[in-house]
Amino acid sequence: MSPPSAKEVAKHFLVMLLLIAKASIISSHVLSLELIKGLDILHKQEIMA
What we know:
This protein is an all-alpha fold. It has a domain at about 20-49. The protein has one helix spanning about 5-49. It is rod-shaped and about 70 Å long. The N and C termini lie far apart (about 70 Å). The model has no long low-confidence stretch (mean pLDDT about 90). Keywords: Membrane, Transmembrane, Transmembrane helix.
């Protein structure tokens, strides 16, 4: 089995980076949605109080 070429390694690295970037974008999007939801609930509680 021959060692992978630099091109192969670079391609693999780019794919990994893309996946990580995608995952972090999704998680930050979910986090911001949760934050908005939380702030909305707090706001409603203030109005009712």
